[in-house]
Amino acid sequence: MQLLLFNVFNGLVIGMFYALMALGLSMILGLNQTINMAHGGFLIVGAYLAFTLDPYLGFWGALVAGPLCAAVLGLVVERLLIKPLYKRNEPLYTLLVTFGLALVIQDVARRIWGPQGLPFSIPDVLNSPISEALFFITGYRALIVAIALIAAIALFLVLQYTRLGVRIRAGTRDLETVATLGVNIYVLRALNFALGCLFAGLAGVLAAGQLGLIPTMGESVIMPSFVAIIVGGVGSLVGSILGGLIIGVAAGVMTTYYPAASEAVIYLIMAVVLVVRPRGLLGQEGLFE
Amino acid sequence: MNRKIAALAVLWALLASAPWWLPVVGGYTQLGSRVLIYALATMSLNLLLGFTGGLSFGHAAYFGLGGYGAGMTLKYLAPSTPLALLVGTLVGGAAATLLGPSVMRRRGIYFAMITIAIGQLFYFVAVRWNEVTGGEDGLAGFARQPLHLGGWTLPLDDTAFYYLVLVCFAAGVAIIGLLLRSPLGRTWVAIRENQRRAQFLGLPVARYVWASFAISGTLTAFAGGLNALLNNFTSPQDLHWILSGNFVIMVVLGGMRSFWGPLAGVIIFLVAQDYLSSLTENWMTFIGIIFILVVLLFPRGLLGMLRARTRPQ
Amino acid sequence: MSIDRRSVIKAGLAVGAAGLIAPPILSYGRGESPIKIGMHDPLTGTYAAEGESEVNGAKLALAQVNRKGGMLGRPVELVVEDDAANVGTAVQKAHKLLEKEGCSMLMGAVSSATALAVNQVAHEKGTIYMVTGGHTDPVTGSEAHWTTFRICTTTYMLAAGLVNTLYKKFGKRWYFITPDYAFGHTFQAAYAKILQSLGGTVLGNSLSPLGTTDFSSYLIKAQSTNPEVLILLVDGQDLVNCMKQAVQFGLQKKMAIGGGLSELEVMAALPPEARSGWWTVEWYWNQPKTPHVKEFVAAYQKAYGKTPSARSWFGYAGLHSLVLGANKAKSIQPVKMARALEGMVLPPEVALQPHKIYFRPGDHQLMSSEFPGEIKKDGKYPDLFQVADIVEGDKIALPVAETHPGKLDYPTA
Fold first, then answer.
1. How far is Cα of residue B312 from the mean position of the Cα atoms in its chain?
2. I want to staple C238 with a disulfide (CB 3.0 to 4.6 A). Which of B231, C116, C164, C234 is the partner?
3. Which residues pair with C174 in a beta bridge?
4. Do B296 and A264 touch (CB under 8 A)?
5. Is B286 domain-assigned?
6. What is the mean pLDDT of the segment spanning A78-89?
């Protein structure tokens, strides 16, 4: 029983990480209508740039700088690669272009920083469990949860109460009307994409502290993030968080009882959701159908 | 019309004589077989992608299932190449048919995401089910058996196997060609062009998409079976989403709306990949750049561009 | 985008045409035609660092061999292909090396699965294959062929080199975290067998897929069984992540951690707080008493700016072994080479370790030594590991009767 509880808690921690990635993906899926296969690439960018800036800015500085760099790259990518494709109105192209971008980013990272794993040191204060009994909740893992929560709440506040946020939400529903109302949708879409990449970069820095850096680090996160969105519901940010937590816990619990199925189970959950409630748990009706 | 027949004749002549001229241009027979196998896989994918408008980004699942089906038949059931191919095709085809309903009512991004996730499901089953699939290491310990035709045994060395692949490729191409020319094929194109109108015309769109999905998956599985026989090996990599993505880019590269487009795309892509990966460690960067350039600059693909050029405006 | 579409097409065609028409670049001008050795290793992907080390070691050996007159008086050329630790790719590359490049023999592998697959190809084609770094037992065991030889030790030898130390020092209740593929399975089986014969208990075994980044679930489960020793058999980046998380959970205070294969590349990737545990390496650069090691280390450092790891030595010894075998057989004909390699003792400047190491005739496994020891907590690269002992390979390996009873499948014709 204790083992199960541990795994549930642990799953929630992992789930928050997936949720962070899913949030960014969901934003990009919404307004930019793009399946960002390069989301893992922006994770890498955030991680590696944080690593490079760490000696100058320290861990906390790098935690801020990494995601910002990812966001800036996101602006560039949106302008050069995504913008020309909006008018084609066919998700195939943005999917392929981001797929190609993912390959390029991973290989360039390997070229610049090398194929071997690189260590990323986190402040000592975070490096031990917060209590003897809950040994698996290290200070760092608690930080991941805290930052993910803060980021999610910040995003929610931005979307709810700022002009940018309102426009993004409106644009996701009906971009044409928003454009007619005089909003510069080019800037809007660019900022939205950058915001999504910011989240990926943030996830990257957090991952680096946990896992170290290696060029392939983005690959294993992207698929569960998609599943989180499908399970939680496309178009709902709370849904993305919920989806991330659900699959995190499911994977963690499965590891206790039947470890061989611990990856497959999240796709199984997704399959069930797609059959029973295709729009996802909190998804909005009619999107992408 | 005559030009078209002439072009086709040249194409088949080249394909039939490949083992002779391939080494001269720096190729090798195994590469030729691989090109034909991938061409078959991508032309079947194109049934769904280019002609019906279904964005399948998880087709490697059926390719891999075909491979595992063929491999497991040879390893556990019977040392018969034709049986292996049959089983592989049926396994992949069954999967595509059973899973068709989950995607047939969706379009665009949702369709794509579901196919990606289905692909991942199969991938993880293959990776983790060690006892049956060999897990991460893949399925080994089988080899393509000589063919017994009448009283005559044909051992399948590289060249003989190439011709077997060529025969299978021709058969697959014939099937795809016939389908596309039939009323069924016309309906698919109608659905691709304007799904809503097709629906208003009373067509059971979902069922047609299902048929397209199932047939496409079956032929791709056939190619997958051949692939397992080519390497005498199969592994979860044959189910991976990166392979699915490569299939799609090959179709787009050659020309999504054209019949022979995928073959052109496969030739360019595989040759480029083969050449680049021997030339430089950074081959993945170049492949990624190919993806990006193709999408941005050549979305209609090679054959799409050629056709646009020859067609009167 | 303002790039003109036409110019891109033209550029692409030009590159393609040039590639096809240009004659293969020969490293040697006129004169003797070179003997080509084909090498497949991961240069991209998770195992790229290990692959790179193997290739560098082989290249160093290549330079030495060619300075001394090559193989049978002919210059040697090394053709390297990236297999990305992907089995399908490895098989394709093996075919390419043999058919297109005309290589006379093959070497390489980091991933055990690629070693097994290329082993099959080599046997089909009747070509000598020197496995440098794929550890799984069947390569010189149940799947052994006359064509195939191996430099790195078997997983059984890896386990046997360390097990006694761990058992005596730390206790008899062990939990395993094992990577879910051939290497892991045979490694764990070896440990379990020896442990149980000593009277210890296997409390449990968690199989983690390759590329797992989050080991927390497995570590929680391990901790719940209250082991005295936690054996981590994962390697590469998986080991780095697992160790980091184990140390973050404070597990090293409750139990001994170690047991698996460690490599210099991995140790360098661990942050200082995670550097602990007892591990085994297959070759280490710091052997003050062994002759020739210093020269090798210096030459490698000069050429590549890094300290050689066990992987570097695998590539180095692998290429040298092929050359020595051919020279001894006075031929590159595979059967003759195979016979010559059987029982061949590696000269000290190639062996670079104190014991006598040789290719065992019955299964073609090199009887090289294991170097068990402890990671240095405060070590600075490259001085990261304290070797406790150098254990002779043929004392700990399973006898041939158990790895490959019966004769090897030499062609009868």
1. 32
2. C234
3. C202, C229
4. no
5. no
6. 90
Alpha carbon dihedral B189, B190, B191, B192, in 10-degree steps, equals 50
Domain that holds residue B211: 29-239
User: Terminal CA-to-CA distance of chain B, rounded, Å?
Assistant: 19
**Residue B255: inside a domain, yes or no?**
no
What is the count of structural domains for chain B? 1
Confidence of residue A289 (pLDDT cuts 50, 70, 90): very low
Cis amide leading into C308 (omega within 30): no
Of C43, C218, C250, the CB nearest to A128: C250
Q: For residue C21, what pLDDT is reported?
A: 43
Prediction ipTM score: 0.84
Check pLDDT > 80 for residue B55.
yes
Q: C26 pLDDT exceeds 50?
A: no
From C208, which residue of chain B is nearest by alpha-carbon distance? B128
Which residues in A lie closer than 8 A to residue B109 (C-beta atoms)? 29, 33, 35, 91, 288
Q: Does C269 touch chain A (CB under 8 A)?
A: yes
In a domain, B111, yes or no: yes
For chain C, the average pLDDT equals 87
Q: Quick check: C217 and A212 CB within 8 A?
A: no
Closest by Cβ to B112, choosing from A95, A264, A274:
A95
Q: For residues C353 and C291, what is the distance between their CA atoms, to the nearest angstrom?
A: 8
* Chain A contacts in chain C segment 212-231 (CB below 8 A): 212-214, 216-221, 223-224
pTM (two decimals)? 0.86
| Nearest alpha carbon to residue B245 among B58, B39, B72 | B58
Mutate to test the interface with C, among B142, B230, B270, B277 (most CBs of C within 10 A): B277
List alpha helices for C153-276, DSSP H: 155-170, 182-198, 216-224, 237-248, 264-269
DSSP lists the bridge partners of residue C131 as: C108, C150
Does pLDDT of A171 surpass 90? no
pLDDT value for C28:
41
Contact yes or no for B277 and C82 at CB 8 A: yes
**Is C286:C373 a contact under the CB 8 Å cutoff?**
no
Of A29, A91, A107, the CB nearest to B284: A107
Q: How many Å lie between the alpha carbon of B285 and the closest alpha carbon of chain A?
A: 4
Instruction: Tell whether the torsion through CA atoms of A194, A197, A199 and A201 is positive or negative.
Output: negative
Q: What is the pLDDT of residue C88?
A: 83
Contact B136 C89 (CB under 8 A): no
pLDDT confidence of residue C15: 55
Tokens of C178: 């094992």
Residues of chain B neighbouring C3 (CB-CB closer than 8 A): 297
pLDDT per position as a tens digit, C71-118: 998 999 999 999 988 888 898 899 999 988 899 999 999 988 899 989
Residues 6+ apart with CB under 8 A from C287: C293, C352, C353, C354, C387, C390
Determine, yes or no, domain membership for B15: no
In the numeric block, the tokens 């002919």 are attached to C74
Measure CB to CB from residue B284 to each of A84, A103, A288 and give the nearest one. A103
Phi/psi at C231 (nearest 5 deg)?
Answer: -95, 120
CA angle, corner C210, sides to C204 and C215, nearest 5? 55
